[in-house]
Amino acid sequence: MNVPRASGIRCNRIALVVVTTSALVVACAAKQRIPLDCVPEEVTVFVDQQALEELPENLKLRSDRPHKVFLKGPGYEPQLIVLEPRRGESGKTSLHPDRICVELVPVGVDRQLTLEIEEDGEVSPGAPDADGATP
Fold this sequence. Notes:
Layout: H1 5-27, E1 31-39, E2 44-47, E3 50-51, E4 58-62, E5 67-72, E6 79-87, E7 93-96, E8 100-103, E9 114-117, E10 123-126
């Protein structure tokens, strides 16, 4: 039994429309700008296992899924930051933390880091003094 050629063409067009629509949905996902500060600045940044060519001031990431940001530099301990999506009261999803501030620790240095959590949920590192103690 021969199938008319027109129906085969119609199926290809439907498949093309489905693929195109799926691509548009992915391309239209909300993005969030995450400021990125790192000391030292001579680091390699990986976002979701993709190396960036240079250290950007901001990362522009989809806010509807988690992301892994990995920073490493020669002579420094690497650091991993996981950004998680959270739905706010308005129903809008945003990534947390909403800012990345990293100071990489030199390899072999035993340094204790204290995090101070403020009432509004912000996290800020306490800087150690000359004896290694934090205020």
